[in-house]
Amino acid sequence: MRYAYAITAALLLGGTAAALTTHQSLEAQTAQNEGMQAAAPRGAPASLADMVERLQPAVVNISTKQRVQVQNPFAGTPFGDLFGGGRPQTRQAQSLGSGFLISADGYVVTNNHVVSPGARGASVDSITVTLTNGEEYEAKLVGRDAATDLAVLKIVGSKPFPFVKFGDSTKARVGDWVVAIGNPYALSGTVTAGIISAVHRNTGGTYDRFIQTDASINQGNSGGPMFDMNGNVIGINSQILSPSGGNVGIGFAIPSEQAIPIIETLRKGEKVRRGYLGVQISPLSEDMADSLGLAKNRGEFVQGVEPGEGAEKAGIRPGDVIVRVNGREVTPDETLSLLVSNLPIGSRVPIELIRNGKRMSVTAVVGERPPEDKLAQFGGSPDEDFSQSDDSESAQAASQDLGVSVQALTPSIVRQLGLPATTRGVVIAAVDQDGDAGAKGLRRGDVILSANNRPTTSEAELDAVVREAKQAGRNAVLLQVLRRGQQAAFIPVRLRGK
Protein backbone atom coordinates (compact mmCIF):
# COMPACT_ATOMS: atom_id res chain seq x y z
CA MET A 1 0.00 0.00 0.00
CA ARG A 2 2.82 2.44 0.77
CA TYR A 3 4.40 1.62 -2.58
CA ALA A 4 1.17 2.30 -4.35
CA TYR A 5 0.79 5.68 -2.67
CA ALA A 6 4.33 6.58 -3.58
CA ILE A 7 3.62 5.95 -7.27
CA THR A 8 0.48 8.03 -7.11
CA ALA A 9 2.27 10.92 -5.46
CA ALA A 10 5.00 10.76 -8.05
CA LEU A 11 2.44 10.88 -10.84
CA LEU A 12 0.70 13.86 -9.27
CA LEU A 13 3.95 15.73 -8.72
CA GLY A 14 4.97 14.96 -12.30
CA GLY A 15 1.71 16.43 -13.59
CA THR A 16 2.23 19.61 -11.55
CA ALA A 17 5.73 20.07 -12.93
CA ALA A 18 4.44 19.66 -16.49
CA ALA A 19 1.72 22.24 -15.89
CA LEU A 20 4.22 24.73 -14.49
CA THR A 21 6.52 24.25 -17.48
CA THR A 22 3.69 24.74 -19.99
CA HIS A 23 2.48 27.94 -18.24
CA GLN A 24 5.97 29.44 -18.28
CA SER A 25 6.35 28.69 -22.04
CA LEU A 26 3.03 30.44 -22.85
CA GLU A 27 4.14 33.54 -20.97
CA ALA A 28 7.30 33.60 -23.06
CA GLN A 29 5.30 33.96 -26.31
CA THR A 30 4.79 37.47 -27.83
CA ALA A 31 1.96 39.02 -29.86
CA GLN A 32 2.32 38.74 -33.61
CA ASN A 33 2.49 42.53 -34.02
CA GLU A 34 4.77 43.16 -31.02
CA GLY A 35 7.48 45.66 -31.99
CA MET A 36 6.71 45.31 -35.66
CA GLN A 37 7.49 48.03 -38.23
CA ALA A 38 6.78 47.21 -41.87
CA ALA A 39 9.57 47.92 -44.28
CA ALA A 40 8.67 50.72 -46.67
CA PRO A 41 8.49 49.88 -50.37
CA ARG A 42 11.70 50.80 -52.11
CA GLY A 43 11.68 54.51 -52.93
CA ALA A 44 8.82 55.30 -50.53
CA PRO A 45 9.15 56.75 -47.01
CA ALA A 46 8.21 54.67 -43.99
CA SER A 47 5.48 57.24 -43.31
CA LEU A 48 3.96 60.11 -45.30
CA ALA A 49 2.94 61.97 -42.16
CA ASP A 50 5.74 64.55 -42.10
CA MET A 51 5.35 65.38 -45.77
CA VAL A 52 1.55 65.61 -45.55
CA GLU A 53 1.75 67.83 -42.47
CA ARG A 54 3.74 70.39 -44.44
CA LEU A 55 1.65 70.18 -47.62
CA GLN A 56 -1.90 70.16 -46.28
CA PRO A 57 -2.09 73.89 -45.34
CA ALA A 58 -1.64 74.82 -49.02
CA VAL A 59 -4.58 72.65 -50.18
CA VAL A 60 -7.95 74.37 -50.02
CA ASN A 61 -11.65 73.69 -50.32
CA ILE A 62 -13.45 75.65 -53.03
CA SER A 63 -17.19 76.25 -52.97
CA THR A 64 -19.46 78.35 -55.17
CA LYS A 65 -22.91 79.81 -54.73
CA GLN A 66 -24.97 79.81 -57.89
CA ARG A 67 -28.33 80.98 -59.12
CA VAL A 68 -30.26 78.68 -61.41
CA GLN A 69 -33.36 79.61 -63.36
CA VAL A 70 -35.79 76.71 -63.59
CA GLN A 71 -39.13 76.41 -65.31
CA ASN A 72 -42.13 76.84 -63.02
CA PRO A 73 -43.64 73.33 -62.68
CA PHE A 74 -47.12 74.89 -62.36
CA ALA A 75 -46.84 76.88 -65.60
CA GLY A 76 -49.83 76.20 -67.83
CA THR A 77 -51.91 74.76 -64.99
CA PRO A 78 -54.75 76.29 -62.94
CA PHE A 79 -52.19 76.76 -60.13
CA GLY A 80 -49.86 78.87 -62.25
CA ASP A 81 -51.15 82.21 -60.92
CA LEU A 82 -50.80 81.00 -57.33
CA PHE A 83 -47.15 79.98 -57.77
CA GLY A 84 -45.39 82.79 -59.56
CA GLY A 85 -47.73 83.26 -62.46
CA GLY A 86 -45.97 80.62 -64.54
CA ARG A 87 -42.74 82.64 -64.73
CA PRO A 88 -39.32 80.89 -64.41
CA GLN A 89 -38.12 80.60 -60.83
CA THR A 90 -34.64 81.31 -59.45
CA ARG A 91 -33.12 78.76 -57.09
CA GLN A 92 -29.87 78.57 -55.17
CA ALA A 93 -27.24 75.93 -55.90
CA GLN A 94 -23.67 75.27 -54.86
CA SER A 95 -20.65 73.26 -55.95
CA LEU A 96 -17.68 71.87 -54.05
CA GLY A 97 -14.18 71.01 -55.13
CA SER A 98 -10.50 71.31 -54.31
CA GLY A 99 -7.61 73.58 -55.20
CA PHE A 100 -4.17 74.60 -54.02
CA LEU A 101 -2.25 77.81 -53.42
CA ILE A 102 0.70 78.53 -55.72
CA SER A 103 1.86 81.85 -54.22
CA ALA A 104 2.00 83.64 -50.89
CA ASP A 105 -0.24 86.43 -52.22
CA GLY A 106 -3.18 84.07 -52.68
CA TYR A 107 -3.29 82.70 -56.24
CA VAL A 108 -5.16 79.38 -56.37
CA VAL A 109 -5.24 76.69 -59.07
CA THR A 110 -8.26 74.46 -59.61
CA ASN A 111 -10.33 72.84 -62.35
CA ASN A 112 -12.50 75.03 -64.56
CA HIS A 113 -15.53 72.82 -63.93
CA VAL A 114 -15.22 73.41 -60.16
CA VAL A 115 -15.94 77.14 -60.59
CA SER A 116 -18.26 76.95 -63.61
CA PRO A 117 -22.07 77.03 -63.59
CA GLY A 118 -23.37 73.56 -62.97
CA ALA A 119 -26.45 73.81 -65.20
CA ARG A 120 -27.74 75.65 -68.22
CA GLY A 121 -29.06 79.05 -67.26
CA ALA A 122 -27.03 79.11 -64.02
CA SER A 123 -24.64 81.86 -62.95
CA VAL A 124 -21.93 81.88 -60.27
CA ASP A 125 -22.56 84.56 -57.63
CA SER A 126 -19.56 83.96 -55.38
CA ILE A 127 -16.52 81.75 -54.84
CA THR A 128 -15.27 80.88 -51.35
CA VAL A 129 -11.86 79.39 -50.52
CA THR A 130 -11.55 77.60 -47.17
CA LEU A 131 -8.15 76.77 -45.66
CA THR A 132 -7.46 73.67 -43.60
CA ASN A 133 -7.61 75.75 -40.42
CA GLY A 134 -11.18 76.76 -41.23
CA GLU A 135 -10.47 80.32 -42.38
CA GLU A 136 -12.74 81.40 -45.24
CA TYR A 137 -11.90 83.94 -47.95
CA GLU A 138 -13.73 85.34 -50.92
CA ALA A 139 -11.99 84.62 -54.23
CA LYS A 140 -12.23 86.14 -57.69
CA LEU A 141 -11.89 84.29 -60.98
CA VAL A 142 -8.72 85.48 -62.73
CA GLY A 143 -8.97 83.29 -65.81
CA ARG A 144 -10.14 79.96 -67.13
CA ASP A 145 -9.35 77.57 -69.98
CA ALA A 146 -12.19 75.18 -70.74
CA ALA A 147 -10.14 73.16 -73.24
CA THR A 148 -7.76 71.90 -70.54
CA ASP A 149 -10.21 72.34 -67.62
CA LEU A 150 -7.96 74.74 -65.71
CA ALA A 151 -8.80 77.90 -63.77
CA VAL A 152 -6.88 80.41 -61.66
CA LEU A 153 -8.44 82.25 -58.68
CA LYS A 154 -7.15 85.09 -56.48
CA ILE A 155 -8.04 85.25 -52.80
CA VAL A 156 -9.30 88.64 -51.69
CA GLY A 157 -6.82 89.23 -48.88
CA SER A 158 -3.27 90.41 -48.26
CA LYS A 159 -1.89 88.06 -45.60
CA PRO A 160 0.88 85.65 -46.62
CA PHE A 161 -0.58 82.24 -47.41
CA PRO A 162 1.10 78.82 -47.39
CA PHE A 163 1.74 77.60 -50.95
CA VAL A 164 3.34 74.78 -52.91
CA LYS A 165 5.41 74.72 -56.07
CA PHE A 166 5.22 72.64 -59.25
CA GLY A 167 7.52 69.76 -60.08
CA ASP A 168 8.55 68.23 -63.40
CA SER A 169 5.97 65.73 -64.62
CA THR A 170 8.17 64.73 -67.58
CA LYS A 171 10.26 62.75 -65.11
CA ALA A 172 7.24 60.85 -63.76
CA ARG A 173 7.41 57.12 -64.41
CA VAL A 174 4.84 54.37 -64.22
CA GLY A 175 5.19 52.83 -60.76
CA ASP A 176 6.30 56.03 -58.99
CA TRP A 177 4.55 56.78 -55.69
CA VAL A 178 2.19 59.76 -55.56
CA VAL A 179 -0.03 61.44 -52.95
CA ALA A 180 -3.36 63.19 -53.59
CA ILE A 181 -4.86 65.69 -51.15
CA GLY A 182 -8.34 67.11 -51.56
CA ASN A 183 -11.90 67.29 -50.36
CA PRO A 184 -13.83 64.26 -51.63
CA TYR A 185 -17.51 64.42 -50.73
CA ALA A 186 -16.72 67.62 -48.75
CA LEU A 187 -14.41 65.71 -46.39
CA SER A 188 -11.68 68.34 -46.19
CA GLY A 189 -8.01 67.45 -46.01
CA THR A 190 -8.39 63.86 -47.18
CA VAL A 191 -5.08 62.21 -48.12
CA THR A 192 -4.77 59.21 -50.42
CA ALA A 193 -1.68 57.53 -51.86
CA GLY A 194 -0.90 55.20 -54.71
CA ILE A 195 1.27 54.83 -57.75
CA ILE A 196 1.30 56.22 -61.28
CA SER A 197 -0.58 53.68 -63.37
CA ALA A 198 0.07 55.25 -66.79
CA VAL A 199 1.28 58.45 -68.42
CA HIS A 200 0.15 60.30 -71.55
CA ARG A 201 -3.32 58.81 -71.15
CA ASN A 202 -5.94 60.10 -73.62
CA THR A 203 -9.61 59.83 -72.62
CA GLY A 204 -11.06 61.38 -75.78
CA GLY A 205 -10.31 65.10 -75.46
CA THR A 206 -8.24 67.08 -77.95
CA TYR A 207 -5.57 68.00 -75.39
CA ASP A 208 -5.78 64.97 -73.11
CA ARG A 209 -2.39 63.86 -71.83
CA PHE A 210 -3.28 62.68 -68.32
CA ILE A 211 -1.29 60.98 -65.60
CA GLN A 212 -3.32 57.97 -64.50
CA THR A 213 -3.17 56.87 -60.87
CA ASP A 214 -4.70 54.30 -58.55
CA ALA A 215 -4.62 56.75 -55.62
CA SER A 216 -8.25 57.15 -54.57
CA ILE A 217 -9.84 60.08 -56.44
CA ASN A 218 -13.52 60.82 -55.83
CA GLN A 219 -16.04 63.58 -56.43
CA GLY A 220 -14.69 66.69 -54.73
CA ASN A 221 -11.05 65.80 -55.40
CA SER A 222 -11.26 67.76 -58.67
CA GLY A 223 -8.73 70.58 -58.77
CA GLY A 224 -6.62 69.20 -55.96
CA PRO A 225 -2.89 68.51 -56.27
CA MET A 226 -1.04 65.27 -56.98
CA PHE A 227 2.36 65.28 -55.25
CA ASP A 228 5.48 63.27 -55.93
CA MET A 229 7.63 61.97 -53.07
CA ASN A 230 9.54 65.25 -52.97
CA GLY A 231 6.34 67.15 -52.20
CA ASN A 232 6.17 68.83 -55.62
CA VAL A 233 2.93 69.15 -57.60
CA ILE A 234 3.24 67.02 -60.73
CA GLY A 235 -0.48 66.84 -61.52
CA ILE A 236 -3.88 68.41 -60.97
CA ASN A 237 -6.57 65.82 -60.20
CA SER A 238 -9.29 66.22 -62.80
CA GLN A 239 -11.27 63.12 -63.75
CA ILE A 240 -12.22 59.62 -62.70
CA LEU A 241 -13.30 56.62 -64.70
CA SER A 242 -16.03 54.82 -62.82
CA PRO A 243 -19.25 52.94 -63.63
CA SER A 244 -20.66 53.89 -60.22
CA GLY A 245 -19.39 57.45 -59.72
CA GLY A 246 -17.05 56.35 -56.93
CA ASN A 247 -13.39 55.41 -56.88
CA VAL A 248 -12.42 52.21 -58.70
CA GLY A 249 -8.71 52.95 -58.84
CA ILE A 250 -8.68 54.85 -62.13
CA GLY A 251 -8.10 58.57 -61.68
CA PHE A 252 -6.58 61.15 -64.00
CA ALA A 253 -4.48 64.25 -63.34
CA ILE A 254 -3.43 67.04 -65.70
CA PRO A 255 0.39 66.87 -65.81
CA SER A 256 2.32 69.92 -64.61
CA GLU A 257 4.23 70.18 -67.89
CA GLN A 258 0.92 70.90 -69.64
CA ALA A 259 -0.62 73.00 -66.87
CA ILE A 260 2.23 75.40 -66.03
CA PRO A 261 2.26 77.50 -69.24
CA ILE A 262 -1.54 77.75 -69.23
CA ILE A 263 -1.66 78.73 -65.56
CA GLU A 264 1.01 81.40 -66.08
CA THR A 265 -0.94 82.83 -69.03
CA LEU A 266 -4.19 82.91 -67.04
CA ARG A 267 -2.46 84.40 -64.02
CA LYS A 268 -1.38 87.35 -66.18
CA GLY A 269 -4.98 87.87 -67.26
CA GLU A 270 -4.16 86.86 -70.83
CA LYS A 271 -6.03 84.62 -73.25
CA VAL A 272 -4.67 81.16 -73.99
CA ARG A 273 -3.68 81.02 -77.68
CA ARG A 274 -3.01 77.78 -79.50
CA GLY A 275 -1.42 76.85 -82.78
CA TYR A 276 -3.60 75.74 -85.69
CA LEU A 277 -3.01 74.27 -89.15
CA GLY A 278 -6.57 74.07 -90.44
CA VAL A 279 -6.96 70.35 -91.08
CA GLN A 280 -9.73 67.93 -90.25
CA ILE A 281 -8.05 64.73 -89.09
CA SER A 282 -8.80 61.20 -87.98
CA PRO A 283 -6.62 58.53 -86.32
CA LEU A 284 -4.82 56.04 -88.53
CA SER A 285 -6.93 53.07 -87.47
CA GLU A 286 -6.19 49.48 -88.43
CA ASP A 287 -8.63 49.58 -91.36
CA MET A 288 -7.37 52.97 -92.51
CA ALA A 289 -3.74 51.87 -92.29
CA ASP A 290 -4.52 48.60 -94.06
CA SER A 291 -6.18 50.40 -96.94
CA LEU A 292 -3.08 52.59 -97.33
CA GLY A 293 -0.51 49.88 -96.77
CA LEU A 294 0.89 51.72 -93.71
CA ALA A 295 1.58 50.84 -90.09
CA LYS A 296 -1.33 51.71 -87.80
CA ASN A 297 -1.16 54.38 -85.08
CA ARG A 298 1.77 56.16 -86.71
CA GLY A 299 0.52 59.45 -88.05
CA GLU A 300 -2.95 60.95 -88.58
CA PHE A 301 -5.08 61.04 -91.71
CA VAL A 302 -6.13 64.35 -93.27
CA GLN A 303 -9.87 64.23 -93.96
CA GLY A 304 -10.21 67.84 -95.03
CA VAL A 305 -8.25 71.08 -95.39
CA GLU A 306 -9.68 74.47 -94.48
CA PRO A 307 -9.26 77.10 -97.21
CA GLY A 308 -6.81 79.89 -96.48
CA GLU A 309 -5.19 78.27 -93.43
CA GLY A 310 -1.60 77.15 -92.98
CA ALA A 311 -2.10 73.57 -94.15
CA GLU A 312 -3.61 74.56 -97.50
CA LYS A 313 -0.94 77.20 -98.08
CA ALA A 314 1.75 74.58 -97.38
CA GLY A 315 0.24 72.23 -99.99
CA ILE A 316 -1.27 69.67 -97.61
CA ARG A 317 -4.20 67.83 -99.22
CA PRO A 318 -7.06 65.58 -98.14
CA GLY A 319 -5.80 62.01 -98.17
CA ASP A 320 -2.34 62.88 -96.82
CA VAL A 321 -1.03 61.15 -93.71
CA ILE A 322 0.92 63.53 -91.43
CA VAL A 323 3.59 61.54 -89.61
CA ARG A 324 5.93 64.13 -88.09
CA VAL A 325 5.67 67.78 -87.00
CA ASN A 326 8.70 69.89 -86.15
CA GLY A 327 10.79 66.75 -85.73
CA ARG A 328 8.34 65.01 -83.38
CA GLU A 329 6.49 61.86 -84.41
CA VAL A 330 2.68 61.93 -84.49
CA THR A 331 1.37 59.09 -82.30
CA PRO A 332 -1.73 58.33 -80.19
CA ASP A 333 0.21 59.73 -77.20
CA GLU A 334 1.38 62.85 -79.06
CA THR A 335 -1.48 63.70 -81.40
CA LEU A 336 -1.27 66.22 -84.22
CA SER A 337 -3.61 68.62 -82.39
CA LEU A 338 -1.51 68.47 -79.23
CA LEU A 339 1.78 69.01 -81.06
CA VAL A 340 0.50 71.90 -83.16
CA SER A 341 -1.33 73.61 -80.29
CA ASN A 342 1.97 74.08 -78.43
CA LEU A 343 3.78 75.66 -81.40
CA PRO A 344 4.30 79.45 -81.46
CA ILE A 345 1.75 81.26 -83.62
CA GLY A 346 3.41 82.55 -86.77
CA SER A 347 6.30 80.09 -86.61
CA ARG A 348 7.38 78.09 -89.68
CA VAL A 349 7.51 74.35 -88.99
CA PRO A 350 8.57 71.36 -91.12
CA ILE A 351 5.89 68.72 -91.61
CA GLU A 352 6.54 65.22 -92.93
CA LEU A 353 3.68 63.42 -94.65
CA ILE A 354 2.92 60.41 -96.80
CA ARG A 355 1.03 60.93 -100.05
CA ASN A 356 0.16 58.01 -102.32
CA GLY A 357 2.74 55.89 -100.52
CA LYS A 358 5.57 58.43 -100.91
CA ARG A 359 7.13 60.37 -98.05
CA MET A 360 7.53 64.11 -98.56
CA SER A 361 8.12 67.29 -96.54
CA VAL A 362 6.42 70.68 -96.55
CA THR A 363 6.76 73.81 -94.42
CA ALA A 364 3.69 75.39 -92.84
CA VAL A 365 3.10 78.64 -91.01
CA VAL A 366 1.23 78.04 -87.75
CA GLY A 367 -1.98 80.05 -87.35
CA GLU A 368 -4.13 80.72 -84.29
CA ARG A 369 -6.79 78.21 -83.37
CA PRO A 370 -10.26 79.77 -83.81
CA PRO A 371 -13.13 79.48 -81.32
CA GLU A 372 -14.76 76.08 -80.99
CA ASP A 373 -18.05 77.21 -82.59
CA LYS A 374 -16.20 78.12 -85.79
CA LEU A 375 -14.40 74.77 -85.79
CA ALA A 376 -17.77 73.02 -85.53
CA GLN A 377 -18.86 74.72 -88.74
CA PHE A 378 -15.76 73.41 -90.50
CA GLY A 379 -16.59 69.90 -89.34
CA GLY A 380 -19.87 69.74 -91.27
CA SER A 381 -23.57 69.59 -90.53
CA PRO A 382 -25.63 66.78 -89.01
CA ASP A 383 -26.50 63.77 -91.12
CA GLU A 384 -29.57 63.88 -93.33
CA ASP A 385 -31.58 60.81 -94.24
CA PHE A 386 -31.84 59.56 -97.83
CA SER A 387 -34.29 57.09 -99.36
CA GLN A 388 -33.58 53.38 -99.09
CA SER A 389 -32.68 51.08 -101.98
CA ASP A 390 -34.97 48.37 -103.33
CA ASP A 391 -34.48 44.63 -102.80
CA SER A 392 -32.61 44.02 -106.06
CA GLU A 393 -30.08 46.75 -105.33
CA SER A 394 -29.56 45.44 -101.79
CA ALA A 395 -28.95 41.94 -103.13
CA GLN A 396 -26.41 43.31 -105.59
CA ALA A 397 -24.63 45.21 -102.80
CA ALA A 398 -24.36 42.01 -100.74
CA SER A 399 -22.54 40.31 -103.63
CA GLN A 400 -19.87 43.02 -104.01
CA ASP A 401 -16.43 42.91 -102.38
CA LEU A 402 -17.00 46.35 -100.81
CA GLY A 403 -20.57 45.61 -99.80
CA VAL A 404 -21.98 48.47 -101.89
CA SER A 405 -23.62 48.75 -105.30
CA VAL A 406 -22.92 51.94 -107.25
CA GLN A 407 -24.09 53.70 -110.39
CA ALA A 408 -22.94 56.61 -112.50
CA LEU A 409 -23.43 60.06 -111.04
CA THR A 410 -25.59 61.90 -113.58
CA PRO A 411 -26.34 65.66 -113.48
CA SER A 412 -29.92 64.79 -112.54
CA ILE A 413 -28.79 62.75 -109.50
CA VAL A 414 -26.35 65.53 -108.51
CA ARG A 415 -29.26 68.00 -108.42
CA GLN A 416 -31.47 65.60 -106.47
CA LEU A 417 -28.74 65.09 -103.88
CA GLY A 418 -28.14 68.83 -103.60
CA LEU A 419 -24.45 68.53 -104.46
CA PRO A 420 -22.24 71.01 -106.33
CA ALA A 421 -22.61 70.70 -110.10
CA THR A 422 -18.88 69.99 -110.39
CA THR A 423 -19.11 66.80 -108.30
CA ARG A 424 -17.56 63.76 -110.01
CA GLY A 425 -17.79 60.19 -108.75
CA VAL A 426 -20.16 57.25 -108.41
CA VAL A 427 -23.25 57.28 -106.23
CA ILE A 428 -24.05 54.47 -103.81
CA ALA A 429 -27.35 52.83 -104.72
CA ALA A 430 -27.44 50.32 -101.87
CA VAL A 431 -25.36 49.10 -98.93
CA ASP A 432 -25.12 45.63 -97.42
CA GLN A 433 -25.90 46.38 -93.78
CA ASP A 434 -24.17 43.16 -92.69
CA GLY A 435 -20.88 44.25 -94.23
CA ASP A 436 -18.16 46.64 -93.14
CA ALA A 437 -19.53 49.45 -95.34
CA GLY A 438 -22.83 49.27 -93.50
CA ALA A 439 -21.06 49.17 -90.15
CA LYS A 440 -19.06 52.28 -91.13
CA GLY A 441 -22.29 54.20 -91.82
CA LEU A 442 -22.28 54.33 -95.65
CA ARG A 443 -25.75 54.60 -97.19
CA ARG A 444 -27.70 55.23 -100.36
CA GLY A 445 -27.00 58.68 -101.78
CA ASP A 446 -23.38 58.88 -100.62
CA VAL A 447 -20.98 59.68 -103.44
CA ILE A 448 -17.63 57.89 -103.77
CA LEU A 449 -15.19 60.45 -105.17
CA SER A 450 -12.08 58.27 -105.10
CA ALA A 451 -10.79 54.87 -104.06
CA ASN A 452 -7.23 54.51 -102.78
CA ASN A 453 -6.70 58.12 -103.91
CA ARG A 454 -7.72 57.37 -107.51
CA PRO A 455 -10.77 59.19 -108.94
CA THR A 456 -13.75 56.88 -109.54
CA THR A 457 -16.20 58.17 -112.15
CA SER A 458 -17.56 54.76 -113.10
CA GLU A 459 -18.31 51.39 -111.57
CA ALA A 460 -15.53 49.87 -113.69
CA GLU A 461 -12.94 52.23 -112.20
CA LEU A 462 -14.04 51.34 -108.68
CA ASP A 463 -13.88 47.61 -109.49
CA ALA A 464 -10.37 48.03 -110.90
CA VAL A 465 -9.12 49.57 -107.65
CA VAL A 466 -10.68 46.73 -105.65
CA ARG A 467 -8.97 44.11 -107.84
CA GLU A 468 -5.59 45.81 -107.46
CA ALA A 469 -6.02 45.98 -103.69
CA LYS A 470 -6.78 42.25 -103.52
CA GLN A 471 -3.79 41.43 -105.74
CA ALA A 472 -1.55 43.53 -103.49
CA GLY A 473 -2.77 41.60 -100.45
CA ARG A 474 -4.57 44.57 -98.88
CA ASN A 475 -7.63 43.87 -96.77
CA ALA A 476 -9.32 47.25 -97.16
CA VAL A 477 -9.88 50.05 -99.67
CA LEU A 478 -9.84 53.73 -98.73
CA LEU A 479 -12.93 55.50 -100.06
CA GLN A 480 -13.36 59.26 -100.22
CA VAL A 481 -17.06 59.78 -99.60
CA LEU A 482 -19.14 62.93 -100.02
CA ARG A 483 -22.48 63.43 -98.28
CA ARG A 484 -24.74 66.43 -98.72
CA GLY A 485 -24.00 69.25 -96.30
CA GLN A 486 -20.69 67.75 -95.14
CA GLN A 487 -17.01 67.79 -95.96
CA ALA A 488 -15.81 64.83 -97.99
CA ALA A 489 -14.50 62.14 -95.63
CA PHE A 490 -12.07 59.26 -96.12
CA ILE A 491 -13.47 55.96 -94.89
CA PRO A 492 -11.57 52.66 -95.00
CA VAL A 493 -13.86 49.76 -95.92
CA ARG A 494 -12.72 46.17 -95.43
CA LEU A 495 -13.17 43.77 -98.31
CA ARG A 496 -15.62 40.93 -97.89
CA GLY A 497 -14.12 38.05 -95.98
CA LYS A 498 -11.09 40.07 -94.82
UniProtKB/TrEMBL annotation:
<feature type="binding site">
    <location>
        <position position="149"/>
    </location>
    <ligand>
        <name>substrate</name>
    </ligand>
</feature>
<dbReference type="InterPro" id="IPR036034">
    <property type="entry name" value="PDZ_sf"/>
</dbReference>
<keyword id="KW-0732">Signal</keyword>
<dbReference type="Pfam" id="PF13180">
    <property type="entry name" value="PDZ_2"/>
</dbReference>
<feature type="compositionally biased region" description="Acidic residues">
    <location>
        <begin position="382"/>
        <end position="393"/>
    </location>
</feature>
<feature type="active site" description="Charge relay system">
    <location>
        <position position="222"/>
    </location>
</feature>
<dbReference type="InterPro" id="IPR001478">
    <property type="entry name" value="PDZ"/>
</dbReference>
<feature type="binding site">
    <location>
        <begin position="220"/>
        <end position="222"/>
    </location>
    <ligand>
        <name>substrate</name>
    </ligand>
</feature>
<keyword id="KW-0378">Hydrolase</keyword>
<dbReference type="InterPro" id="IPR011782">
    <property type="entry name" value="Pept_S1C_Do"/>
</dbReference>
<feature type="active site" description="Charge relay system">
    <location>
        <position position="149"/>
    </location>
</feature>
<feature type="active site" description="Charge relay system">
    <location>
        <position position="113"/>
    </location>
</feature>
<dbReference type="Pfam" id="PF13365">
    <property type="entry name" value="Trypsin_2"/>
</dbReference>
<feature type="region of interest" description="Disordered">
    <location>
        <begin position="368"/>
        <end position="399"/>
    </location>
</feature>
<keyword id="KW-0720">Serine protease</keyword>
<feature type="domain" description="PDZ">
    <location>
        <begin position="403"/>
        <end position="484"/>
    </location>
</feature>
<feature type="signal peptide">
    <location>
        <begin position="1"/>
        <end position="19"/>
    </location>
</feature>
<keyword id="KW-0677">Repeat</keyword>
<keyword id="KW-0645">Protease</keyword>
<dbReference type="GO" id="GO:0006508">
    <property type="term" value="P:proteolysis"/>
</dbReference>
<feature type="domain" description="PDZ">
    <location>
        <begin position="266"/>
        <end position="339"/>
    </location>
</feature>
<feature type="binding site">
    <location>
        <position position="113"/>
    </location>
    <ligand>
        <name>substrate</name>
    </ligand>
</feature>
<keyword id="KW-0574">Periplasm</keyword>
<dbReference type="InterPro" id="IPR009003">
    <property type="entry name" value="Peptidase_S1_PA"/>
</dbReference>
<keyword id="KW-0346">Stress response</keyword>
<dbReference type="InterPro" id="IPR001940">
    <property type="entry name" value="Peptidase_S1C"/>
</dbReference>
<dbReference type="GO" id="GO:0004252">
    <property type="term" value="F:serine-type endopeptidase activity"/>
</dbReference>
<protein>
    <recommendedName>
        <fullName>Probable periplasmic serine endoprotease DegP-like</fullName>
        <ecNumber>3.4.21.107</ecNumber>
    </recommendedName>
</protein>
<comment type="similarity">
    <text>Belongs to the peptidase S1C family.</text>
</comment>
